[in-house]
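User: Quick one: structure for sequence A, then sequence B.

Assistant: Sequence A:
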Amino acid sequence: MGVTRLVLLLAGVSVAAQAPRIGDINFYGLRKVAGDKILSALEVKSGSPLPPSKGAMEERVEAISGVVDARVEAVCCDGGSVALFIGIEEKGAPHVDYRAEPAGNATLPQDLMDLYHDFLSAVSKAAQVGDTAEDLSAGHGVMHNPAARALQEKMKGFAAEHLDLLRDEIRHGPEPEERTVAAAVIGYAPDKKAVINDLQYALQDPEDTVRANAIRSLKAIAVLAQKQPELGIRIQPTWFVEMLNSLVLSDRVQSTDALVVLTDSGDPGALDLMRERALNALVEMARWTTLRYALPPFLLVGRMAGLKDPEIQKSWAIGDRETVIRKALAPPPKKRG
């Protein structure tokens, strides 16, 4: 996922006041409940105006028999329409638990909070002119846009000088916004190995923006690990895989992107864990109609099917997702005794 879409998801940007039209409609978490039943309860379809109340939509879905919880996200914008993502948790379905809110009194200095907000503003301005390219090969983000890149350098300096402060915030900060900033800035620390455990801890934070920034920081470190294996950096895939069953869209999308990086060179352990814990979730996401969101999970499904990336990309290019999905869903061959 690009920086622009990340900022939109994390900031919870509201849709335009004049009720945009719904374009693609994507579901996740469906096992027994049919998508048509959800759309009927919401009284929406592709092309209809987006209802004004997210909360009211979620309440309608939660009233459906068998639904424990629901989440609705409208992602802007494609040709003037929004992509609608409707997630549910059914009774007896996988459930992801997160840590309780920290009860400590850690806090971050205001100058760091201002720095991070300035960075988000710079990214937003860069997006307006199409300058969102970002290099992750250093183990942290380095944007092409000069203004945003200069602010990243300042975050790098802060992380080098105040690592203990950021660690304390992640574990004991009572303010979700400050933990969100800490999860982003700690990824700029010079010793990437030293912050992996801190970021893995942040993956279990009760606030989804904290988790999203932690995933993004770990993804950048994973890029460095792929490019420089001699560093011996190892990121465990466990929590990424668990979050593929999350009700929160950003958990699923960000974790999928990170797992694509982790499995670029194979990693049979990660692929086996995905097959065991999240195959159905990934298949469901690989069938999404919003293509930019469907491609990363489709790559993972293909890799679980034992296919090489060129084969997966060829099937994607010709619009044949189901052949790859069937291979992934097929029982593995029995081992001979």
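Sequence B:
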Amino acid sequence: MTDDSHFGRLLADWSDDQGDKSGFFPLGQGMDSLGARLRMLEKAEKSVDLQYFLMKDDTAGRVMLHALLQAADRGVRIRFLLDDIFTEAPDRNLMLINQHPNIEVRLFNPISRRGVRLLNFVGNFRQANRRMHNKSFTADKAVSIVGGRNIADEYFQLNETAVFSDFDVLAIGPIAREILRSFDAYWNFAFAIPIEQLSSEVPAGTLDQERALIDAKAGATYTRVYEKALQSSLLQELIAGQRSFFVAEARVLADDPEKLENEIGIEHRKLIGELGEILRGAEREVTFISPYYVPGENGVELLRSLSAKGVRVVVATNSLASNNHVPVHSGYARYRKATIRAGVELYEARADARSKSQARDQAGEKFTLHTKLILVDRRYLFVGSLNLDPRSIDINAEMGLLIDSAEMTGTFADTLDELIHAMSFRVSLNAIGRLEWRSMIDGVEVVKKGEPQAGPWLRFKAWVLRIGPESQL
């Protein structure tokens, strides 16, 4: 059954044409992805359900709050689930929108608001360390966005000092209800706490007065950002029906929230277990894109086994200079030689890399890879929140989509191959077994003998942080 809403009718028309298959469209540019979310909020008539790891008190965060309030004013029911640990949006703002009769905010596994936050985290480390890393956005149970982006400027090309390369997919069809079932599992879990139970920063009855301040602060910014997003040729063409979705079967791969209250064990690694079956069945090629790559011995062995049966294996991750988490790089560095010796093509993103969408005046920005993608045999594409590290696999909860589309994956694989070569260093071993980094920059081959583009202090920090426990990376 579909509801009588703009997206509900769109879903009904889609189902008449495509049956049980869903439609997918890649969102590789941050402004396209933000524009798609704002457009969904603008057109939603019944419900919007959001689930994110973090939200910042920046332009993207304020614009999102403004858009949520506008949708709620039209009668749209909003459910907003945020993990608490790295969310910087003030409790006051979240409490404020929670007062709206059509908005409900819950924080997942929240840290106590009494006393010093850091001490509260350390004092309850065993539980506080387990986080919900899932990311999804669904309107009217019909259209969804799933991928790696959180709600902050760097994910949507709004940050003036850093560029995050990230990836989402826009999905329409039956898959949206499957995404919503995953959302409901977390929304109804015991760790999802209504925000009014945590904080009393905003007294009851102040919504009208404070709303004027939000509108004054975010209204003009919302208009400017949304207008910029709408100028995107991709979004315009989607709205006009000039772009086609990739039609495919797909399924949600997601950890159960129970993973976060149990001891770490293989029986609770639902997502990685299902994904592992697909990977072990690969016959031709597998490409892993992960900002944080700490494979462990088991991960290296999987890559070795794939390579041994003739599968081309590509791994692309951050370099030390492009990584925004130095301790993770320290953990990854232990496995570089083993990964290469396993027969893998290993690439590290250049901190000065530039995508085709960036202007010359952005040349001072640091490039960071945040995309989380796995491509298998030019048939399967997995996109979601999963990093290839112990934290994602063992500690946190994750979710994503496994899309079975040779057309979409094959087309994307060719583009991805080009981008990896153009924006990365190929890491290899020389004749005496030492690491080398090679890249074509402005038509000239550049060869580095040490961590490229990283200064002495950064290299020293990475060396010192190798003492950290790998299980927490």
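The chain has two domains: 6-239, 255-472. Residues 6-239 form a domain with the Endonuclease; Chain A fold (CATH 3.30.870.10).

User: Thanks, that's what I needed.
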